[in-house]
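Minutes, project check-in
Item: structure for the 123-residue chain
Input as provided by the requester:
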Amino acid sequence: MYVRYLQARLRLFESSFCRLTSGMKRKAIMDTEIKIDLALVNAKAPLCALADVVLRWPGGDLTIRRCAVFEKQGEPAWATLPRIPVEKNGKKTYLALLDLSRDLKQRVLEAVLAEYERKNHAR
């Protein structure tokens, strides 16, 4: 049910740009405000934080829940958009719940990591 909700919100997000030329579309996406609500978690390593991301643009917003932040000792932290585990051919793999444009995905994940670094260094 949540996946259908996300898909509908993404369609609304994309439709707000459908009348724009590609250059204008890029500018509109870059004007999207990103707000991060991140919580450090005591979970099985390497998971160390979960974040909710709010994307705001003129005329709408979209909340992406449960972006994950991982960190292994001696390696830089990394973030992912929400995904679900599935078993394929006896191996556990993860499928993305949503796709964002490359630019927007990069901005979102960089914002999540920046908030993680801020909160992690504050403690």
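Outcome recorded: Helices lie at 2-15, 22-30, 102-122.
No further action items on this chain.
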